[in-house]
Amino acid sequence: MVINIKYLPILLFLPVAFALGLLSLSRQYSEEAFRGIKNKVYEEMHPYLQRAQTLLPVNVAPFLCQGDLQRIHTGLGKIWLERGKEAKLNKLDRYADMIQAHEHYIRAIATNPHDILAVQGIAETVAELEFTFPELFPGKVNPYNALSLFTRMREVEPNGFDSNYSHADYLYKRELHKELLLQVQHTAKIFPSYGKIKRASFYSPAMREAIKSGLREAIDNKIMTRSAFFSLSTMYKEEKEYAQAAVYYERGMLERENTITDKNYVNLGSLHLRAGSMDETYQAFTACLRMSPNSHKMIQIIFSRFKKDQNLDGFVTFAKVASTNRNLERPLRLYVAKAHIGLEDFETAKENLHTINRDKPSPEAYYLLAEVARKERDWDAMELSIQRATVLDPKNGRYYKILADALIYQKKYRPAAKYMQKALANDPENTTYRKKLTKIRSYYK
To answer: Are 271 and 285 in contact (CB under 8 A)?
Structure first.
């Protein structure tokens, strides 16, 4: 049979087109599999990678397939590795799965010894084999040692987040304490997040100084300096070195001055407060109120910080400093009254609350007057004050509940039940209100 020469290019192109078609289809399966692996879906992705490997035109165009084949073996290695990790109780299955993973990673690295996914994968796989082998074969010489593979992994990607955490975890399991401290220090340097390290399986309080050294190295090398400063601040705060914590926190804030928020100033002020640096405390909290979009809410937060520190006198002083802003005078006066209640200076508290109500009646101020009356066991005053609060804010169930309390103290159970019904009507899901109403009714049945 004689082939017309004009059809020769077409005939020569057909195998190439066929190979390219198979390669394209193989890559579609491969991409689908790696999307699943990225989302930590492993077992279901195995058939996709098998299909991708079957479709590769290795016999027709082997030069086109090496990168794809390497990637497929890396993916299969990851699937077998994760499958083996899940076999926590069945050590034999775990070992067999790791052997499969190891074979695939070996093939992947033979094609590309610099691919970090394959390099990290084989290191983690050999580590699992190293820890599993003695349990299955006690008394036999362990042929597995992943230390050099983790060293190789660090050479391939010295600053990788996942690879460095994996390396530290291996050293922790091997109980190589000196090497672990150096690795943790390096990890803190390249990714200066104390919170992340603290949540890691390898963390222990004994490595705090190594972490601090790494964080300081990050600052010196200008690596995520804001995060490094904040991390150091958190560590010193945990150690109750509040003055030092405040220094680092402020330096972290100043790394990006255009991103400073009112919450940053609240945190800074709280650290100065714990350190006993009152001038710096007042400055930070005043700056917070100056820039806050919701200064009333922020006053509440600031008050809670003073209260937690058992320094209500300090809040009273701060309020005097901050009240130069006329817009804040009224809400500050309310919390100053709360401070005086906490200090059991009831007369001063009542003076502040009456001043608020003379200017403009406030349900919250009347509620606080009722609470003062409760402490002074003046049930008539308590009833009168909280009743005015319910008039000003008739949808607040808590006020009706307190009015019911005032009536119970006077043994007026039926009116108390009526107001507890109103409290419950405003908050139908409140089981405490419901139980209280039942108890009140039991008094007069």
So the answer is: no
Task: Output phi, psi for 288, to 5 deg.
Answer: -60, -50
pLDDT at 61: 57
The one-letter amino acid at 47: P
Nearest C-alpha neighbor of 181 from the set 167, 195, 163: 167
Lookup: tokens for 373: 């009356």
Rg (CA), the chain: 35
Q: Are 415 and 438 in contact (CB under 8 A)?
A: no
* DSSP per-residue letters across 6-53: GGHHHHHHHHHHHHHHHHHHHHHHHHHHHHHHHTT--GGGHHHHHHHH
CA distance 306 to 416: 36
**Which tokens belong to 120?**
């990290």
How far, rounded to the nearest angstrom, does the alpha carbon of residue 256 sit from its chain's CA centroid? 21
Longest CA pairwise span in the chain (Å): 119
Which pair of tokens denotes residue 296? 């009333």
Q: Give the model's pLDDT for residue 60.
A: 56
Which parts of the chain sit beneath pLDDT 70? 1-21, 58-64, 88, 445
Q: How open is the CA angle 339-343-349, to the nearest 5 degrees?
A: 55
pLDDT at 414: 94
Q: How far apart are CA 325 and CA 319, in angstroms?
A: 10
Q: What pLDDT is recorded for position 224?
A: 96
What is the rounded distance in angstroms from the CA atom of residue 204 to the CA atom of residue 191? Answer: 18
CA 126/CA 244 separation, integer angstroms? 44
CA-to-CA distance for 269 and 239, rounded, in angstroms?
A: 18
Q: Report pLDDT digits (tens) over 315-334.
A: 999 999 998 887 888 999 99
State the Cα–Cα distance between residues 104 and 96, nearest whole angstrom: 13
Residues 6+ apart with CB under 8 A from 445: none
- The kind and range of the H/E element at 107 are helix 91-111
Q: Are 40 and 78 in contact (CB under 8 A)?
A: no
**Angstrom distance (rounded) from CA 150 to CA 121:** 10
Question: What is the percent of the chain with per-residue pLDDT over 70, rounded to a whole number?
Answer: 93
Contact at 8 Å (CB) between 289 and 325? yes
Distance of alpha carbon 170 from the chain centroid:
24
* Interval 206-258: pLDDT, tens: 999 999 999 999 999 999 999 999 999 999 999 999 999 999 999 999 999 99
Q: How far is CA 105 from CA 87, 152, 243, 412, in A?
A: 20, 14, 51, 81
Question: 337: how many CB neighbours lie within 10 A of its CB?
Answer: 26
- Euclidean distance between CA atoms 409 and 380, whole angstroms: 10
> Rounded CA gap, 299 and 332, in Å?
7
